[in-house]
Amino acid sequence: MEKKVDSTSDFFDKDKVINDEQKIILVTGGAGFIGSNFIRYLVQNYPNFKVINFDKLTYAGNLNNLITIEDNKNYVFFKGDVVDPKDVKTAFEQFSPDYVVHFAAESHVDKSLINPDIFLQTNVLGTQILLNYSREHKVQNFVQISTDEVYGSISNDLNVNEDARLEPNNPYSASKASADLLLRVAYQTYGQRINIIRACNNFGPYQFPEKLVPVIIHNALNKLDIPVYGDGKNIREWIHVDDHCRAIDVIMQTGKSGETYNVGTGNKWRNIDLVEHILNKLDVNSNLISYVLDRQGHDIRYSVDSSKIRNELGWKPQIDFEEGLNQIIAWYSNHMDWVEEITTGKYMSYYNDIYKPRLMETQ
Ligand code: NAD
Ligand code: DAU
Known about the structure:
Elements: E1 24-28, H1 33-45, E2 50-55, E3 75-79, H2 85-95, E4 99-102, H3 109-114, H4 116-136, E5 141-147, H5 171-188, E6 194-199, E7 201-203, H6 212-221, E8 226-229, E9 235-240, H7 241-254, E10 260-263, E11 268-270, H8 271-282, E12 289-292, H9 307-313, H10 321-334, H11 336-342, H12 346-362
Bound molecules: nicotinamide-adenine-dinucleotide and 2'deoxy-thymidine-5'-diphospho-alpha-D-glucose.
C-alpha cells in the first residue's frame, strides 16, 4: 500500500509545473481523520495539484483512510516523522512544496492527560521543525491546523473571536497554543507567510473511535455502554469535516498572511443531548448511557465567533447538521470492518486504560 517515493517519477516533474494553478501541497498527518478527508477533497477538486501525504502512521494514522484515492497519479505517501529533521529535510528537498498544511499531531485530550510528553514533542517541536524547513524552502503558505481548544473554556453568553486570550487547560490544548505562538514568531520575526485555523469539534468519516461521535455510534451499534464524562452538560460546537476542509482550502489559497481564522458553525450541543439524539436516530435505548468519572480539567464550553472567515473570505458551512449526522451514522454502519480493524488489538488496551479506572470509581 505504501507507494515508493521516486523523484524521477511522473508524480514529481518540475518541468510539468507550467502555471500557478499547479501547486505542490505537503499535507502532514494526512493518514489521520481530518487530514485524510482533506487529501481526498484536494485530489477530487484540483486535478492540477500534487499532494504529498507526510505521516508517521502512529496509532491514529491509517492508510486505509485513503484507499479510494491511493492510486491517483497526483497523490503520494511519504512515511516520515515531523519530529525528525532528517525526514522533514528529505521531504522538502524532494518535493519543494508550495503550501504546507500541518495536521500532524497527537490529537486526543484524554491521552494527553496521561502522557503529555509526546504531545509536546509532536505538536510543538514538530511544528518548529516544519517551520524551519518551510522558511528555507520559501513555502508560499504554512497553514497550521490549530483548534478552538486553545481559548480554554468559554462562559455561557460568549463566542470568542481570534483576538481572545489563549487559556488552554490540558496538555493537548497547551501544546497546540504553543505551536500557534511559534507560528506568530515565524510571521513576525522571520517574515514567513502563515495562517492559523482554529476549528470547533469535527465529525465525519474515518474519525478514530476514541472521539465522542464515533464512540457513541460504535458502542450503540454493538450494544455497549456509552461513557458520558461527568454530568454530560459540557458543551461542544460541531462541524462536518467536509465544511472544515472547504475552510482550510479557502484559507490556504486566499487567507491574508499572518492571520488567524476561527471556523465554527454555531451548532452547539450538551454532550448528553447529543448522545441521546444519536441514540434516538439509531433507535437504541438510552439505558446504554453510563455516566463515568469526569475528565480532569474538563472544559465546560467551547464557542467560537467565526464571522471573520465568513465576512472576509466568503466561507460558510454548507452541510446541514442533521443530514451530516445521518450520513455519518450510515457511514459507520457500513464500515464496521474499518472500525473493527481499529477496535481490536492495541486499541482495546488503550480503551481499557482510559475507561476502566473511570468505571471502577463510579460503580
Ligand atoms: P488524528 O489523531 O486523527 O490524526 C493525526 C495524524 O497525525 C495521524 O495520521 C498520525 O499518524 C499523524 N502523526 C502523529 N504524530 C506524527 C508525527 N510525529 N509525524 C508525522 N505524523 C504524525 O487527528 P485529527 O482529529 O485528524 O486532527 C488533525 C489536526 O486537526 C490536529 O492538529 C488537531 O489538533 C486539529 N483539530 C482537530 C479537531 C477535531 O475535532 N478532530 C478540531 C480542530 C482541530
Ligand atoms: O474542539 C476541537 C477539539 O475537539 C480538537 O482540537 C481535538 O483534537 C478533538 O479531540 C476534540 O476534543 P474534545 O475533547 O472536545 O473531543 P472528544 O471527542 O474527546 O470529546 C468531546 C466531548 O465529549 C468532551 O466534552 C468529552 C466528552 N466525552 C468524550 C468521550 C471520548 C464523553 O463524555 N465520553 C467519551 O467517551
